[in-house]
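Researcher: Next entry in the queue.
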Amino acid sequence: MRPVSVCIIAYNEADKIARCLQSVSWANEIIVVDSGSSDNTIEICKQYTDKIYHRDWTGYVDQKNYAMSLAKYDWVLSVDADEEVSPELSQEIQRLFQSEVNNFVGYNIPRLTYYLGKWIKHSGWYPDEQLRLFQKNKAKWVGRELHERIQVDGSIGRLNNVIYHYTYRDISEHLATINHFATLWVEEQVTYGKGKKPSAGRLVLHPVIKFIECYFWKRGFLDGKHGLIIAGFSAYYIFLRNVKLFERHLELGVKETRMTE
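Model: Structure for this entry, 261 residues:
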């Protein structure tokens, strides 16, 4: 079988990372790049690999490119600490790499998310395909803080089995993440000059449109109460980031006024 390197970045993932590491224990190499965990993440990782590196946090793109640069083998499987490679996917990858080399330089993998005790199969959360298996010398992580992605030079195939994603531990963590991502989004908009001051119509209509998209168009109603919660939080995220953008424009306006006084 062609050898595979698994790359994982981590920070305080003690309650999740063992499941992740166990699911890729078949790989030829497991690389963990930790950004300063204060829990026992490192001790858990040592049970599965000796290739554990510390690197201060510099953003998703930088961290993942660094982890990939440490890989010994040409083929890399990138997995997040809160994910698990399903047994079926593990077998599919191993069967794939026992065959002859094909024309693909990367593979999309569907991702199935576990949220509030339920696997979410609609609401725009599935199949949520991720390009995670790729040839190292033909790939690089690109994008900004909220939108990192792997970019490959060549054709992309698709695998059939899933990566499991164990998302927010509870509602409080979900809300905290929404708040954090909304703040990051505003910073990106301002930095790249795309953050126009939102109108009252935008504040009202965009969240409503997002709710309709998640709950009806993407069939969130089939996920029951979970789908309703996801649609509601998705709409809230759109509302919150626009409100934060409005707030930022007010702050910038005050600064400009003070500078001209």
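Model: The CA atoms of residues 142 and 149 lie 6 Å apart.
Researcher: Noted, moving on.
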